[in-house]
Amino acid sequence: MIPLWVYRAELTLLAASNGPALFRHLYGLPWYGGLLRQWAADSLAAATGAVRDLCEIGCGPGDLLHDLVQPSQQATGIDASAAMLRAARPHPLVRFQSGRLPDVPLAAGSQDVVLAASVLNCVPDPWASLAGMARITRTGGVVSVLVPTGPRASVGDLLRDAGTLGLAGRSAAALVHWLRMARVVDPAEAARWFTAAGLQQVTITPYLRGRVSGIRGRVS
User: Of all residues in the chain, what percent carry a pLDDT higher than 70?
Assistant: First the structure.
């Protein structure tokens, strides 16, 4: 059996040398890609009325939007990395453009759903970032983030969680590496950020045994 540290070293090297390849590798893991798709589907279902326009902030090479967008929709992927945008595959219903929070380069009130996975825990000012996401969201629309949530766990605890989820090898290593390296957010604190940004009906949905949470609010 290959030791866990070998897999984690592979992920570290990939992150340093080829960010888009790392994103694609992680999205291709059933637990991670499935998590993103479930969270995104839950977010879209929470919107009031039909979802015509959706946006993902920190979209990477855009794989989630490719899977998410429907024929009746238009999706926009925003990323600050030129390398990520170059790696994005063309799609007739998805446009990609450069940008970063909090100054998202989209018109006010132009989106029904705005998504950001593993972004809010990385920005210096989460409240301002949420306010920027809320600005581009229509009345009745949804702002939704996915973030690692506490408590901070040991490698052993995370491996036990991975085993409970049926993960092994590279899949288990990716879970451990992600949750050990990422900044953990207190979901109650994040809910207060949403409220401070003017978002209403804030809800918290735990995933992966509570190691990750989807937090969303509505623009009213």
Answer: 97
